[in-house]
Amino acid sequence: MSVTCLHEHQSLRPTASEVGSAVAAASLRATTAGERMTEPRRRVLELLLTASEPVKAYDLIARFHTDGRVAKPATVYRALDFLEKLGLLHRISSISSYVACSGEDAAHAAAFLICDCCGKTCEIQPPEELAMKRAAASKGFSFDRVTMEVHGQCPACQVD
Questions:
Q1: Could you tell me how far CA 6 lies from the centroid of its own chain?
Q2: Residue 62 structural domain
């Protein structure tokens, strides 16, 4: 990403009600999987849900407590690992960041459109997911998830 965009971007943050509903659904998914949605897991998920962009782990660590204290890195990394395994978040490797999953299905392929100017990301379903599954199966390989990353510029950044 470039240093900073010099143009305006509309940030659509979810409402408190939407975040609450997403956390409740995540808790139900955890319970159904025989797991617990602990407070650290819930807090990390809330931080990701309320962010308007991908968030780095160390930013989550810094934001974890509301009273200025800094969370222990292991606490946040364990929560991230749990949430990713449960299909509630995605790690975007190319920018070393995390985003809450916008899909309802725990096991699904995801593709991200990543703006190299402002950092905005958009999760989409990869258009060739079925073809990837067939190709993998032809080699005797089965996969749990696929994450594709596409870099470019969002519509707002293209007008500059």
A1: 25
A2: 16-158
Q: What is the CATH number of the domain that holds 42?
A: 1.10.10.10
State how far the Cα of 99 lies from the Cα of 80, in Å rounded to an integer. Answer: 10
21-64: per-residue pLDDT in tens? Answer: 999 999 999 999 999 999 999 999 999 999 978 999 999 999 99
Q: Is residue 63 part of a domain?
A: yes
In a domain, 2, yes or no: no
For residues 14 and 122, which has the higher predicted lDDT (pLDDT)? 122
The tally of domains found in the chain comes to 1
Distance of alpha carbon 1 from alpha carbon 114, whole angstroms: 9
Task: Give pLDDT, residue 49.
Answer: 94
β-pairing, 97-100 vs 89-92, is antiparallel
pTM summary value: 0.82
Q: 100 phi and psi, to 5 degrees?
A: -70, 145
Residue 119's contacts (CB-CB under 8 Å, 6 or more residues apart) are: 1, 53, 54, 95
| Range scoring the smallest mean pLDDT among 37-51, 64-78, 82-96, 134-148 | 134-148
What tokens does 65 get?
Answer: 């407590």
